[in-house]
Amino acid sequence: MKQILSPAFPNKIHLVIWLILGCGLIGFSDVRAIGFLLPNQDAEAIARGNAFADTADNPSAIFYNPAGISQLPGQQLEVGVLNYLGLNVSHDSVGGGREDTRFQVIPVPQLFYTFSPTNLPLSFGLGVYAPFGLGVEWAEHSSLRTLALDSKLQFITVNPVVSWKISDSLSLGVGPTINYARIKFNRGLQNASDYFEFIGDDFAFGMNAGLLWQPDAKWSFGANYRLATTVDFNGTSTYTPAAGPTASAATTASVPFPQILSGGISYRPTPKWNIESDVDWIDWSPLGTVSLAGTKNIFGFNLPLQLNWHDSWQYKFGVTRYFDHGWFASAGYYFTSDTASSQFFTPGIPDTNLHVGSIGFGHHGRDWHWALAGQIIAGEPRNITAAPGNSNPFTGASSAGTYQLFIPTVTLSVTYTF
Asked: Which pLDDT does position 347 carry in this prediction?
């Protein structure tokens, strides 16, 4: 298989980043400017723009701020499902052509359980959720075929936590995260009929922790920290040329997932209102170059993917109005800054600044609680010009063009107290 490389190609090794993996080893994403992070884990939180770390008063606090489960009496079980109703990404090429990703409805389930004994200042919880994942799929006939085709990341976290209620106003929470991830992507390489594919999976471990301080009935302050972790994907790379035998190789790839720090303030002027504002810092900077170790047996060198991502910020704001008989309604907004530079932009992660609006409503009953939220994720148009880092040196195809994102979601969460 080594003969597929031209003699001059070793001087352009950095271009192989996009040649082989333009859709991104990390590109199995939720098509958002936060890389492949999924911040949506609960309908009540989503309805208020995911500004929830300072309230954290239902079982999904295991994700948003584990200190918050100290507020939950008895045993509570929450089940939810988030549906991305089509990951709609459009590409307008420099020549005037237009193409879109394939329509997909992608469900993402969540499960949270909490238990607060009456005779202890401790509360316990267990969460099962997907903090990263989803996918992007461009059509087989797309002009972007040799840059991106189909990419998927499945990531599931099991997260036991314990919260210590130090005083009536202050709680701390912490717990390990046991993570399983599976990655799969394929794309063209040189022409309209060849394929490169990598499939791998692995387990990794991390931690999340939180603090909740409520000095009085009107004010609440929260903070949440998620430890960085690295997944060492183990699997197989396969290359099928247009003519000739398929070649495969055992492959490993170490991918750093970010540390995340969140914090904010909740203000409750009366018991009927909750106004919250949060800021999240997502540290993507360790994600520089990822090497597919083992592909040397196919191509003569290990394929690198140079992303050079930078930190991303989220600014969240939400309002909830509580009515009589347990009813409530919420609205929210958050802004997310991009993570990828134009130089290394890939259609597999059509990254841009995002504006996200949401609304929702629900009911808190004696035993049953539920919430329903709708959300619109709209990306600012992003104009990409051709550069060595975002071009395929075999075909000359580049990521150049204008990219636009539009992603609606709907989420339902139901909680039972017993």
From this structure: 87
Domain borders along the chain are: 2-417
Residues 229 and 255 sit within 8 Å (Cβ to Cβ): no
Decide: 51 and 276 in contact? Cβ < 8 Å: yes
Question: Tokens at residue 415, please?
Answer: 């909680």
Rounded to 5°, the CA angle 137-141-143 comes to 85
pLDDT at 32: 45
Q: How far apart are CA 145 and CA 342, in angstroms?
A: 19
The pLDDT tens digits of the residues spanning 257-307 come to 999 999 999 999 999 999 999 999 999 999 988 899 999 998 888 888 878
Kindly report the number of other CB atoms within 10 A of residue 203's CB atom.
10
DSSP structural state of residue 337: -
Task: Look up the CATH architecture of domain 2-417.
Answer: Beta Barrel (2.40)
Residue 5 above 50 pLDDT? no
Distances (CA, A) of 144 to 33, 82, 304, 416: 20, 29, 20, 47
Tokens of 190: 């040189």
